[in-house]
TrEMBL record:
NCBIfam families the UniProt entry points to: sucB
Region (Disordered): 174-250
Protein name per Swiss-Prot or TrEMBL: dihydrolipoyllysine-residue succinyltransferase
Keyword presence, Mitochondrion: no
Bias (Basic and acidic residues): 203-212
Biased composition, class Low complexity, residue ranges: 213-224
Lineage of producing organism: Eukaryota, Viridiplantae, Streptophyta, Embryophyta, Tracheophyta
Keyword check for Iron: no
Pathway the protein takes part in: Amino-acid degradation; L-lysine degradation via saccharopine pathway; glutaryl-CoA from L-lysine: step 6/6
Family designation: Belongs to the 2-oxoacid dehydrogenase family.
């Protein structure tokens, strides 16, 4: 089948490529000739977008039907040698081309629907191309519905709280702004119509006001004839009135988080082990090199990169913590994807290949995307181990819950100066409690304790990452050299 299309006779339509003034000479039936009689003699074949095309006519082969109704549909059987650019902007339009419809975009491979959370615009507002007009909440992220063209919103085709799927029409937009006033005007007239009969209502209320006075007299007389029964509910707790309560539906993201956390408790044999870390050396390292680090790498040196590198070292020493149960099998992973827990959980891919600067840069990049709401689902999918830093909120100690389908999670907490015994003397030290919650079905207590101990050793002695030293502390190894040991005291 060959698609023959007529170019709209308008200025600016010359941008399309023209292959020739004649297309193909076909032997057409009488019905086909009548159907295509509206076409001019000059027929042009476009090789790019169909922005200026308004009328299509199909030239069918023998035995096929034909329709002369104008349709904005791309012909799927054009010549095989023609290279065409496929436009993927989510919109549809009428035959005149002035009206476009904003639709829900593709939300991700594992997401089939979402909830229309809120409209960012209202009918009559002017919008630019690709400007967000609504937000869709999914189980993982919030997605914007953008305007496909610049124009004025005529009306919405859905309402807040509706469940929508990719391709669902959300709003009608007029590129020229015509027809918007006719849509908005009735809403302005309705209040005036309702306001007209409003004056009689106060008069009726005034007539009804004396009646309660008449009814109030029997109410006073009733207690005289029969005393009120004793209140038996005096000893019962008095519940607050319903007027002081608010019922708000849960967002899809919160419902998804609640479901996953409950599934984690129901599935895993959760057990938590604790330890404490002296943050003196890591904080000193950060203080000494933060300016040089920022000048060279363009990013600040934080404490999180030290814990990420320590967790990677511990996962490599105890690979069972990086594994997961799958049915009757155990899947061991030879890579480390660290999930950074927060409101959303972005993932550091192949973190074992990163140095301190690369870890800090990637964390800052993902945090900025999460704040702006531009983080993608792929950037939050997967992960083999999670680090949760509750210390930024002031948490002193907690038992974090595993993020399924992972097998363990590390919890960081606030740094508090506490008296510690160092070298036989009591001195103040910046201390942090750390917690490891793990799936006891897979990870034994011995492996969990060794894992947490490795993190403690690396954080308290960052040079272990460079020397890959296990066992005794460096200050004990070099105990014969007081100058070396003094660095750690």
């Amino acid at each position: 089948m060959f698609g023959v299309l007529r170019r709209k006779a308008a200025a600016g339509a010359s941008s399309a490529s023209v292959y020739g003034n004649s297309f193909y000479k076909l032997k057409l039936g009488e019905s086909t000739r009548r159907a295509c009689s509206v076409l001019p003699e000059e027929i042009r074949h476009y090789s790019r977008g169909f922005g200026h095309v308004r009328t299509f006519c199909y030239l069918p082969l023998a035995g096929q039907t034909v329709s002369s109704v104008p349709k904005r549909v791309v012909v799927g059987s054009l010549h095989q040698g023609v290279d065409m650019k496929i436009w993927s902007r989510p919109l549809s339009s009428n035959s005149e081309g002035d009206i476009v419809e904003a639709v829900v975009p593709y939300m991700g491979e594992s997401i089939t629907d979402g909830t229309l959370a809120t409209f960012l615009k209202k009918p009559g507002d002017r919008v630019e191309i690709d400007e967000p007009i609504a937000q869709i909440e999914t189980d993982k992220v919030t997605i914007d519905v953008s305007s496909p063209e610049a124009g004025v919103i005529q009306k919405f085709l859905a309402k807040e709280g509706d469940t929508v799927e990719p391709g669902t029409k959300v709003a009608i937009i007029s590129k020229s702004g015509e027809g918007v006033n006719t849509h908005v005007a009735p809403s302005d007239e309705k209040p005036s119509e309702k306001a007209a009969p409003s004056p009689p209502f106060p008069a009726k209320e005034e007539k009804e006001k004396p009646t309660p006075k008449v009814e109030s007299t029997p109410v006073v007389q009733k207690p005289k004839g029969s005393p009120p029964p004793p209140k038996t509910s005096a000893t019962e707790p008095q519940l607050p009135p319903k007027e002081r309560e608010r019922r708000v539906p849960m967002t899809r993201l919160r419902k998804r988080v609640a479901t996953r956390l409950k599934d984690s408790q129901n599935t895993f044999a959760l057990l938590t082990t604790f330890n404490e870390v002296d943050m003196t050396n890591l904080m000193k390292l950060r203080s000494d090199y933060k300016d040089t680090f920022l000048e060279k790498h363009g990013v600040k040196l934080g404490l999180m990169s030290g814990f990420v590198k320590a967790a990677i070292s511990a996962l490599q020493k105890q690979p069972i913590v990086n594994a997961v149960i799958d049915g009757d099998d155990i899947i061991y992973r030879d890579y480390v994807d660290i999930s950074i827990a927060g409101l959303v959980v972005p993932v550091l891919r192949n973190a074992e290949r990163m140095n301190f600067a690369e870890v800090e840069k990637e964390i800052n990049n993902l945090a900025k995307k999460a704040t702006d709401g531009t983080i993608s689902i792929d950037e939050m999918a997967g992960g083999t181990f999670t680090i949760s830093n509750g210390g930024v909120y002031g948490s002193l100690l907690s038992t974090p819950i595993i993020n399924p389908p992972q097998s363990a999670i590390l919890g960081m907490h606030s740094i508090v100066s506490r008296p510690m015994v160092v070298g036989g003397n009591i001195v103040p030290r910046p201390m942090m409690y750390i917690a490891l919650t793990y799936d006891h079905r897979l990870i034994d207590g011995r492996e969990a304790v060794f894992f947490l101990r490795r993190i403690k050793d690396v954080v308290e002695d960052p040079r272990r990452l460079l020397l890959d030293v296990d066992g005794l502390r460096l200050k004990d190894t070099f105990s014969k050299h007081p100058m070396s040991a003094a660095v750690y005291d």
